[in-house]
Amino acid sequence: MTRVLRRAVAWTFAATASVALVVAALVAAWLAGVRIPIASGATYLQVVKVSEADAAGGPGAPFFIMLIGSDFRPGVGGARGDALHVVGVNPALGRATILNIPRDVCTSAGKINNGHARGGPRGQADLASEVVGVPIHYAISVDFAGFDSIVNAMGGVEVDVPAPMDDPFSGAYFAPGRLRMNGAQALAFARDRHDFPRGDIQRSENQGSMLLSGFRQLQEEADDVAGEMRLVVLLARHAQLDGVGLADLYRLGRVAQALDPDGVRNVTMPVVNGGCSGGLRPSADAAALFADFGDDGVLQQH
């Protein structure tokens, strides 16, 4: 190896290591409560470690994450769970399943979307566990403004529009096909239920499809140090952590980067009418799907 080449290799290693150390120090300082300049933006993302995470098993063990889109926005009461998805992750297999839960599914506390309004991310996770029968280890909640801002910070998200959308209630006006949406457009797409005969059931499925597209995009953009830095900065500016430590963030990030997007299923729980006033309940074949989902976080038979 020539002297010039040795210097180039050494400089590259030093630069990469320095950036990695800065990122680690930045996150560690922020998690420790040190006020740093970038951690001053509006909080619109909550990341909660639920008690069940303490018994989640080894690093390769399956675990479950609750993703919640809250309908909170200024001037409107509620903060109900408008978008509900339980994600089973199997690190050993490198696979995952997004299980979409329609917001009108009935529980012991009424419709499932009331869980967030009453008890925040933990309350929503508890009701999802009641319905699906799996332990929720982490819960992540984002409100309308946060969803809009995250999508814009990503530079938009690619979405497959399944059918014509012309909905004045959500503001969704799209032709079928693949479209790169900004935050406002993505939010309108995620909220539209009036353009579909299956209403909220189709909306839940569309939301899951958008989540998968966003995951694929984030994974591609975080494939280098600069990409990881952008995601860390976004998290540090706008996330509120509850019980989540640096080790948790590192593990979740590594697992997410190792997942194969083609190995992630997007499935909506089967439901029928009934169970509470204007609500839905799991259909007769839902129990088998929940069992298949719960044993290792992925679906083999459904």
Explain this structure to me?
The chain is an alpha+beta fold and 302 residues long. It has 2 domains: 1-36; 42-296, 3-Layer(aba) Sandwich (Aminopeptidase). It has 8 helices and 15 strands. Helix 1 packs parallel to helix 6 and helix 4 (183-191) runs antiparallel to helix 5. The longest helix is centred in the N-terminal third of the chain and has 29 residues, at 3-31. It starts with a helix and ends in a 6-residue tail after the last helix. The model is unreliable at 1-40 (pLDDT under 50).
Please outline the helices and strands:
Layout (H helix, E strand, L loop, with lengths): L2 H29 L13 E5 L13 E8 L10 E10 L4 E7 L4 E2 L2 E2 L2 H19 L5 E5 L1 H10 L3 E5 L3 E3 L4 E3 L2 E5 L1 H9 L8 H22 L3 H14 E4 L3 H13 L5 E5 L2 E3 L6 E3 L3 H11 L6
Parallel strand pairs: 1-12, 2-7, 4-13
Antiparallel strand pairs: 1-7, 2-3, 3-4, 5-6, 8-11, 9-10, 14-15
Strand content: 15-25%
Overall 3D geometry?
globular
**CATH architecture heading of the largest domain:** 3-Layer(aba) Sandwich
Spans of at least 5 consecutive residues with low confidence: 1-40
Report mean pLDDT, rounded to a whole number: 78
Number of domains: 2
Query: Main beta sheet, described?
Result: 7 strands, mixed
* CATH fold label of the largest domain: Aminopeptidase
- Helix fraction? 40-55%
Order of helices and strands: HEEEEEEHEHEEEEHHHEHEEEH
For the CA atoms, what is the radius of gyration?
20 Å
